[in-house]
User: Which sequence fits this backbone?
């Protein structure tokens, strides 16, 4: 089968044997998978990664212990917890210190024709969600995680910094929740996607408002994002850190302390609210897809995804293989 | 009257007229006042300060609109809010954007024979608290602020990083609250003060435990403090930022995001719980006093306070002046 392999900054497509399915795992055929910023970072060699990436996927179950899964379209939680530790017993397997992570940490990802994942990680995709849209369940769940972490009252003014893929999902998810979102970005065309969804937008090149929001989400992926967020949040307000930057970020902690600001790191989320938003059509993701490539063209797909101004690039499996 | 004046890194003692008392303000005679790390930073010219510092004080009211205050010993909240804004209307005058701050921002401080403060800022000091101990009400209130911001269950393991003045107040306040405190520091003699109060202590030179605490307080005042705290806190745990460093601090935000850590800035607090801890003798502060000087010897007092290993240095007013 075809399998994408990252090594020393290069993207290879290899022909390797289909993986063995351990008990409790499903063997999944990849229908479509999204290239995420994390995948581009893995390619650049961050985290010392080599192997098969891919953690935003829609697949079809071809083998499983649970017969009800067979031939079903599924999305899947990316963390594979140990199941035995105190985190797992508290249903926080996403933070299990012994976990592996699909396509990121010691578990081969979805950028190949077939891969495996524990059956308990899988979610059946409702018929109302197109396969291309369902690829966004995982990143949209990460956007919705914010609402599981902080209580944002309906009507509350929230600033979202960054108009990349994640920023656009976050602004739509918070808007759907009822927050009064103001999204700041650099790209007129990307902000237009948010505006079409009803989100108010502003250029980050304008003078940023100071101490004006109770909640600010930093999804810029830039070194300046966090400092800007701290300046924009009110005293006693909350900054949600949603995007990483490789290496260290310089921050002046004095205003954080004097203004008693809360900074919250936010990562993966539950799939249920994301599936519901997609099923209802409250969050639209079709406009976020810039391009599509077959698995065999993964090197071109990665190059495309790294271009400026590009949003989501999909890798597509061969349907009837 | 004698008045301490900071200018360009120098400490002067001037002879100036007694201040006028505006309506609603008390005229206060300084009995004792503590030199805090912030005062040393003001001396170094941070925040462009020049003027009279001093915000940890015990005074005697000599003039006031409210006759019940006369001749009473008082401590005082250091923030002078405008009283008219949305912060003030929510009883969060400590964060009023128009506030002045005693001895820090545009309101002359307590390092002089007489100074003024709004009567509503004052707290009568119970007879059971010695004047020298009452100087610690303000910093102990800042320590207690943590318990107003985060819910720490009794018996919970909490790490306190730093064995300076504030660290020693924090560890004792959290210990009194019922937390199982482990305090990390560099100084055997300072840690001994915490140990005598029943706090478990450890040298920061040992290997620091990783991902072991649900709560970590950074009171180190060092650039490494925050990074160490992030390493020591469990996933989904909380780091409380209690001490500032001048300039920017470099932080790797990746573990904050991946482990969904919460960072909370923490500053001034309510005086009531601090006064109660001192009245009951649950927190002992006498061992934190290294030295005492009369107001006239403020230059020597500041020099002493800046020496390595020194804890609190007090400035004392002339009793019967």
Assistant:
């Amino acid at each position: 089968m075809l399998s994408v392999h990252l090594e020393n900054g290069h993207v290879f497509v290899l022909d390797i044997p289909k993986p063995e399915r351990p008990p409790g795992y499903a063997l999944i055929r990849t229908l479509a998978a999204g290239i995420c910023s994390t995948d581009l970072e893995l390619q650049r060699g961050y985290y010392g990664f080599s192997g098969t990436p891919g953690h935003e996927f829609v697949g079809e179950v071809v083998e499983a212990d649970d017969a009800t899964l067979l031939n079903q379209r599924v999305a899947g939680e990316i963390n594979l917890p140990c199941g035995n530790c105190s985190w797992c017993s508290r249903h926080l397997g996403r933070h299990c210190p012994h976990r592996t992570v699909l396509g990121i940490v010691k578990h081969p990802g979805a950028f190949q024709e077939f891969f495996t994942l524990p059956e308990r990680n899988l979610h059946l995709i409702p018929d109302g969600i197109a396969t291309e849209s369902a690829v966004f369940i995982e990143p949209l769940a990460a956007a919705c995680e914010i609402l599981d972490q902080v209580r944002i009252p309906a009507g509350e003014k929230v600033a979202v910094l960054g108009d990349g893929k994640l920023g656009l999902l976050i602004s739509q998810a918070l808007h759907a929740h009822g927050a009064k979102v103001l999204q700041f970005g650099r790209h007129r065309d990307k902000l237009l996607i948010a505006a079409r969804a009803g989100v108010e937008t502003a250029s980050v090149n304008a003078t940023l408002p100071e101490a004006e929001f109770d909640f600010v989400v930093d999804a810029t992926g830039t070194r300046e994002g966090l400092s800007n967020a701290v300046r924009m949040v009110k005293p006693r307000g909350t900054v949600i850190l949603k995007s990483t930057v490789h290496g260290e970020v310089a921050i002046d902690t004095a205003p954080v302390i004097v203004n008693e600001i809360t900074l919250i790191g936010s990562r993966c989320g539950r799939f249920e609210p994301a599936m519901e938003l997609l099923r209802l059509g409250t969050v639209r993701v079709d406009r976020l897809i810039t391009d599509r490539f077959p698995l065999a063209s993964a090197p071109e797909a990665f190059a495309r995804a790294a271009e400026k101004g590009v949003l989501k690039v999909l890798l597509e499996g061969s349907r009837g293989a």
Chain B touches chain A at residues 87, 92, 95, 97, 149, 211, 226, 235-236, 241-267 (CB under 8 Å). The two ends of chain B are 9 Å apart (CA to CA). The mean pLDDT of chain B is 95. Residues 223 and 250 of chain B are 8 Å apart (CA to CA).
